[in-house]
Model the fold of this input.
Amino acid sequence: MRFKAVLFDLDGTLLNTLDDLAESANSSLKSLHFPVHPTDSFRYFVGDGMRTLIERIMPEKSSEKQIAECENIFKKIYSTHWADKTRPYQGVEIMLTDLRIMGQRLAILSNKPDEFTRMCVKKFFPADWFDYVRGQCDDIPKKPDPKGALIIAEKLGLLPEHILYVGDTATDMQTGKRAGMKTAGVLWGFRGIDELKANGADFIVGTPEEIVQLCR
Done:
């Protein structure tokens, strides 16, 4: 096999979390009497961690205190609404099953806070599907810093070149490339093909089944 493991991003790659993120964020803005944003705009707000999401949705020249207040409100709202509309993308569960049957090791690296990352994985996927799951923690720089990806490679006991990194954003492609992994950009996520190609995607895939084919 070309690869021995597949390392996935979460939001926009395995799970469609856009509506729950957008509605929770807009509810946070409303509570502070700030303007809200169209759901589709959140395709470009998310992907670089919770703090960055809040900074992007807040009005210009918002103070650090206002940003921190909005972030705290968002955490409270999202903690009860993170699974209202979130679901795996069509074909993802079959893809993961096929990869496991092939003997691929599976892991997740997300810029979503670690607590929420683990909650999502626990709800939507069987407990034994992933060898390693990691969200954003204070002790590891967020993506595109490759440290988290390299730690996972070490945990799996594999060289980076034996791992396929799969994601939907520039951040993901940069992470995989900096870690020395091959990268696959998915077209069903939050961003488009131009962004993925511009950031060095080795492969562009239109369906989850194509990831299985890459790993044969």
